[in-house]
Amino acid sequence: MENHRFSQSRRTFIRAAATAAAATPFLIRCSSGGKAPGSKLNHACIGVGGMGWQDLNKFREDPNVEIVAICDTDADNLRKASEALPGARTYSDWRELLEKEEDNIDSVNVTVPDHNHFIIAWNFIRKKKHVYCQKPMCHDVTEVRILTEASVKYGIITQLGTQVASRPGDRAAVKLIKDGAIGKIKHAYLCSNRPGAVENYRLPGPRPAQGEAAPGNLNWDLWLGTAPSRPWSPDIYHPTKWRAWLDFGTGWSGDIGCHIFDAVWKGLGLTSPVSVEAEVQESWKNSAARRADVWPQGDHITWMFPGNDMTDTKMLPLEWFDGEFYPPSEIMNLNSGKEYPAESAMLIGTEGALLIPHGGMPVLLPEDKFINYQIPQFEAGNHYHSFVVACLGGPKTESHFAQTGPMTEAILLGTVAIRVPGTRLDWDADKLKFTNFPEAEKFLRRDYRKGWKTKDF
Q1: What's the CA gap between 89 and 316, in Å, rounded?
Q2: Which whole-number Å values give the CA distances from 445 to 64, 107, 141, 405, in the listed order?
Q3: Nearest CA to 357 among 384, 382, 339?
Q4: What's the pLDDT score for residue 386?
Q5: Residue 3: Cβ within 10 Å count
Q6: 255, 196, 303, 160: which is closest to 245 by C-alpha?
Q7: How far is CA 155 from the centre of its chain?
Q8: Do 409 and 145 contact (CB within 8 A), yes or no?
Q9: 225-257 pLDDT, tens digit each
């Protein structure tokens, strides 16, 4: 596939649109001109197993939504969803759904393995359908850039599945950062050391030497989609362990990182990093078989972001830790002797520190210094309902692509760095290039397998 490059005018366009979307509390109307008052949003669910089942039920609970079509490559998942929604039309191939339901739907949620996020979301966006997409937005950096631009170009409503971004804790954290509660920010430490994650979600590899025929309920070719062909093997891909594999998932940082980054990204007003570097576990780095197939079971990524009026430095270091890598002990000990949250962000400022537990309320440290500081209070938001409201003409969503696209790009640059551990990658965001190590650019974009390529990408 040819390398995708932006003209200066297109880069300027999307930057201006993203800035306006982030800074201005305007109302976004439906691209079709909005629906009549009291009408429902006609919605389709792409992927209805696992997280897709949760998403289906969240949309199903909304009285302003009518789920008219559902799709899954697993007939068992589809059967279960069809029993819950007997009026919804069923499909195993999202392309057939789009062809037959284009005039019947307003919106869609994309809740499938990461490697097929872009191809599905992009095709629905081009048909001016509103898109709720699970995180990460895409598998590859270049896919994210194109999808972000498309969402702005076609004027549709979008929402990334960072549900915690709508909850009181993350919203309070954003305000505390913006209010300067801990002064100017000097360093940020993010981590996800969830107990059991390595055993249940991150496989050691390598790929089985031989596969076998997929079970009758699973359309394996459709499940593979854009990814390279390989035989099905039991209990290592579908339904949950696909995240461990380079071809399908984006590693732990690409997955949970979208949650942990969000409040930090918005609170600090971060832009594209200037460099990224990663270290990984030795057992992965020194094994060619594993390196070719699975993500490491632990990694430590360091980004350098341009400083701004929220930071105390010209360059802000932001570090990520997962698996066997943990934040420095002196950072974890700041939590007043309490157990450090396994998934959290810690910001170090000139006047104190801010701990943001994943899904919880933020904590100002040291606690005795901030004992009288009032933590901002917010009502709990419904990430799904706000998407529906925006599609029906209401306020913009909390995690629209113009805001979460650049954040996802930065996160996925970390996954590129993982592929070349120990190498600092200097990043030119405008040109989508590594100025000092062009060999890593092959990881910015995959070559889709035959039958899944499109003339535009």
Answers
A1: 50
A2: 38, 27, 7, 16
A3: 339
A4: 97
A5: 10
A6: 255
A7: 20
A8: yes
A9: 999 999 999 988 999 899 999 999 999 999 999
pTM above 0.85, yes or no: yes
The total of other beta-carbon atoms located within 10 Å of residue 117's CB is: 29
- Cα separation, 408 vs 276, in Å, equals 14
> How far, in Å, CA of 251 to CA of 242, rounded?
10
Token couple for 171:
């919203």
3-class DSSP assignment, residue 74: strand
Helix 401-419, helix 141-153: angle, nearest 10:
170
* Cα separation, 343 vs 358, whole angstroms: 5
Contacts 24+ apart (CB under 8 A), 61-64: 61/384, 62/384, 62/385, 62/388, 64/40, 64/388, 64/389, 64/392
Residue with tokens 């290039």: 433
Closest Cα partner for 404 from 17, 13, 18? 18
Whole-number pLDDT of residue 26: 26
What is the rounded CA–CA span in Å between residue 194 and residue 341?
A: 9
Tell me the C-alpha distance between 70 and 111, whole Å: 11
Mean pLDDT of 3-7: 40
Kindly list the structural domains of the chain, giving each domain's residue range(s) and its CATH number in brackets, ordered by start.
8-164+382-402 (3.40.50.720)
Q: How many CB atoms lie within 10 A of CB 359?
A: 14
